[in-house]
Backbone:
């Protein structure tokens, strides 16, 4: 059953409550490996569902447009101070509704429509909001995009520098959604400095690793840092923008009133809780375990004949090209889901297939590490993946069903925050 329990929802809206309970069970029974997902703590869940959702608070602490902020102001200030202390930054804005609005605020703060922005191409591992063509950021600005090296699968900073020198972007984004390797923040900072660009580090995927000391920090290198709060950082769905003091006012004005109305105060409170959790030694151990698990899984997948982009991983994320396995990413992801292994199909660099039916899969170890799985379990996970993909090619649903049962049996021994067996 869902924890905290939902008796009022069950009484008032059983149809919805049944769906929520079923989702809790699904999350419990599946090996969740979508690289951007996690399980939040029960304290974060409780904070997310408080009466704070009832309150409008347009503005910032001490400068609101509505009365009754006696308690909201200290809650938002607590979240801000915890973000500043955890990441070692001069300023934090905790109001962005999610990662895309956070990145849009950067455009509003530093660019005019038509200005040049440089980011990693989406199929190479970047994000829609780093200037991809279907995004407002690609339609209203002039995007130029860097790739990864075709052979190494890694960013080549010499190519990035050449492009920056040629295009003179006003803003450069580093970071992305399918980047399995360490991001060289000092290297990007040097390039940004040379061409006079604002460097934005989008650390959405790796924020928890940075907080836990398992990935280098962009602080001192990037002018602006954007992040979601719900991936490796293990907070509620939300976002933050962190800056030097020099850029604080521009970012705050861009978030409100530039882009958003009232902040979601229940989310702000849950972010504050997550940031407190992320400042503990236990969270540091968790962050390192995520990376150790990903390394062990990458090694086991390689042994089983999976082709990994860049040959492996330095962080929580693995990107695999399934061409060598004779199956496309989408049918593989669907079969793996039926086998109790949840991940997403994904383009790989220089993919010859379409984004809605690409060659690869993307997976991550943040959620399964929260459940308590360690390196010793990764060979079994890789074996299940290999078996399920092979079974999919032969329409062998019996094997897929068997794996789903084995996954469920394994996970029964690893508690899930937010769920208890009834
Ligand atoms: N949807 C996020 C991810 O999965 O990485 C990016 O926006």
Residues:
């Amino acid at each position: 059953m869902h924890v905290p329990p939902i008796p009022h929802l069950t009484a008032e809206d059983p149809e919805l409550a049944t769906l929520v309970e079923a989702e809790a069970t699904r999350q419990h029974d599946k090996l969740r490996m979508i690289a951007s997902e996690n399980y939040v703590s029960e304290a974060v869940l409780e904070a997310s569902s408080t009466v704070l959702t009832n309150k409008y608070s347009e503005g910032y602490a001490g400068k609101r447009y509505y009365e009754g902020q006696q308690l909201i102001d200290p809650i938002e200030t607590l979240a801000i101070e915890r973000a500043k202390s955890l990441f070692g930054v001069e300023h934090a804005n905790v109001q962005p509704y999610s990662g895309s609005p956070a990145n849009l605020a950067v455009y509003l703060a530093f660019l005019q429509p038509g200005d040049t922005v440089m980011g990693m191409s989406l199929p190479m591992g970047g994000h829609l909001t780093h200037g991809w063509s279907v995004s407002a950021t690609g339609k209203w600005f002039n995007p130029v995009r860097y790739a990864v090296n075709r052979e190494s699968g890694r960013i080549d900073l010499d190519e990035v520098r050449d492009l920056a020198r040629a295009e003179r972007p006003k803003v450069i984004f580093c970071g992305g959604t399918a980047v399995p390797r360490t991001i060289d923040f000092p290297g990007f900072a040097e390039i940004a400095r040379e061409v006079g660009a604002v460097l934005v580090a989008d650390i959405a995927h790796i924020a928890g690793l940075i907080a836990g000391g398992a990935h280098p920090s962009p602080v001192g290198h990037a002018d602006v840092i954007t992040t979601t709060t719900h991936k490796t950082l293990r907070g509620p769905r939300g976002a933050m923008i962190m800056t030097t003091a020099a850029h604080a006012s521009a970012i705050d004005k861009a978030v409100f009133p530039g882009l958003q109305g009232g902040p979601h105060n229940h989310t702000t409170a849950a972010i504050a809780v997550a940031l407190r959790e992320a400042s503990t030694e236990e969270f540091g151990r968790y962050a390192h375990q995520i990376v150790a698990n990903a390394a062990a899984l990458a090694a086991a997948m390689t042994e089983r004949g999976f082709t990994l982009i860049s040959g492996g991983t330095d962080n929580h994320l693995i990107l695999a090209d399934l061409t060598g396995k004779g199956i496309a990413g989408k049918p593989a992801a669907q079969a793996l889901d039926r086998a109790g292994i949840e991940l997403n199909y994904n383009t790989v660099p220089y993919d010859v297939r379409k984004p809605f039916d690409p060659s690869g899969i993307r997976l991550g170890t943040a959620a399964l590490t929260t459940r308590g799985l360690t390196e010793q379990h990764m060979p079994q996970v890789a074996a299940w993946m290999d078996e399920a993909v092979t079974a999919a090619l032969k329409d062998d649903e019996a094997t897929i069903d068997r794996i789903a049962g084995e996954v469920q049996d394994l996970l029964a021994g690893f508690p899930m925050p937010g769920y208890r067996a009834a």
Observations:
- The radius of gyration is 22 Å.
- The mean pLDDT is 98.
